[in-house]
Amino acid sequence: MNKFKERLNEALNENGISQNALAQKIFMSQGVVNNYCTGKREPSLDVLISICKELNVSADFLLGLTD
Predict the structure, then answer these.
(1) Is the pLDDT of residue 61 over 90?
(2) How does DSSP assign 22-36, residue by residue?
(3) Tens digits of residue pLDDT in 39-51
């Protein structure tokens, strides 16, 4: 199972942020963020850092390395 997509969706829900809102904040399209949320794509390191900052979570959490 793709831990990243699970953790990303969890972080979005906990922060009350929609995929579209996150996409706007990280200057990506909603379709790209949707691909991250469904596991079709994984973000580059730069995008991962932006997602972590916007959702106030660590990369280790999103990657499933820590709880």
Answers:
(1) yes
(2) HHHHTT--HHHHHHH
(3) 999 999 999 999 9
Domain ranges of the chain: 3-59
pTM, full prediction:
0.93
Crossing angle between the packed helical segments 3-15 and 30-38, to the nearest 10 degrees: 120
Phi, psi of 56 (to 5 degrees): 55, 50
Give the ranges where 1-67 is alpha helix by DSSP (H). Answer: 3-15, 19-25, 30-38, 45-55, 59-62
Kindly state the tokens that stand for 53.
Answer: 């900052």
Q: What is the percent of the chain where pLDDT is above 70?
A: 99
What residues contact residue 19 under an 8 Å CB cut-off, 6+ apart?
A: 12, 30, 33, 34, 37
CATH 1.10.260.40 fits 3-59, yes or no: yes
